[in-house]
């Protein structure tokens, strides 16, 4: 089955990338925890915009976590092959 990606507005991406760059150590894979942080950072009353930014940031954090896990698994497999 074909999985379609999410489309985000350029404004959401621009703000999300800045937040990722500045607050990456405080972000997690939990949407609601990230939403609290982003609500305090972003100066807007728009729930829709905050949710979109939070969704984008959370998805990017999840992608980074998955990439690190895959990298660790590959390095462990390489070490196991060398040991055999």
Compute the number of structural domains.
1
Mean pLDDT value: 87
CATH class: Mainly Alpha
Uncertain segments are none
Please tell me how large the radius of gyration is: 17 Å
Can you identify the CATH superfamily?
A: Ribosomal protein S17
Helical segment tally?
3
Q: Give the helix proportion (percent range).
A: over 70%
CATH topology, what is it called? Diphtheria Toxin Repressor, domain 2
The global form is: elongated
Q: SS-based structural class?
A: mainly alpha
Q: How many strand units?
A: 0
Estimate the strand proportion.
Answer: under 5%
CATH architectural category: Orthogonal Bundle
Query: What's the SSE pattern?
Result: HHH
Terminal CA distance reads 38 Å
Q: Could you describe the largest sheet, including whether it forms a barrel?
A: none
